[in-house]
Amino acid sequence: MRIANIQIVASFELDQEITFTVGDGLKKLKDSLKGQLHLINVPEAAPPSTPRALFKAEDTILAVGYDRFDFNTKPPKHINDSYESSMTFAHDKVVHLFHELINGAVKYRWTGIVTQLEFPLGDSNQSALEVIAPIIEALIKPNVQDKDLAAFNLQLGFMQNGFNKIYSIKGYENRKLDIIIKGDAQVVNLSDEDYEIIESGVQITLDINNKPNPSGDPFGDMAAVIDEHFESSVKLLDELNLSEVLK
Predict the structure, then answer these.
(1) DSSP 193
(2) Ranges under pLDDT 50 in the chain
(3) Residues 128 and 154 both lie in one domain
(4) Residue 246 Rama label (left phi>0; alpha psi -120 to 50; beta)
């Protein structure tokens, strides 16, 4: 198993002047982290969560919407097989960012954390749909008979310990994306079938938030949601009835 991506969201009450509200904090982050700051023009009718500003640092992207700060990072390869190390890495990154933006500037509501887990499986030439087939049998035992699987994406959610939890399961595949020029036309062909599958497996996304029971303290909530992620990761495969398939 590896942690491919971690997303941390801090939601706050609607602020249609958010780029001005947190403008000084964004400028401080730009200077201290040597990052890039971009203001985005979006249609007036766009949803509040749509980013109005993007801050990009070396391994971090922070999107600022009218009602949330949305942080994304990819744990480095030397730690991405450890849930604890990867979450600690993300926490340490986001705390510095959020300190500049949350404290007193916005009316905080709740915190959510989404981890994207990948379980590489199968031969290098197996597609995502071929790899996911045993997972389907373990989870829902459909009567497919002689039908060819064309798509699979399962999502389930429930409340536990005062948190909302949502699990999403699907297959994934990585391909060797060398640019292929066919003939003399110098046309770049981006069809999937032209590129070799170098890895495929099962992707499980775990989304936990404390919408039902926020404390009002964004940093305390972040720590609580991270703790719940740790506990859920230990029981993840057993709870999904996949411990025999994804050993």
Answers:
(1) G
(2) none
(3) yes
(4) beta
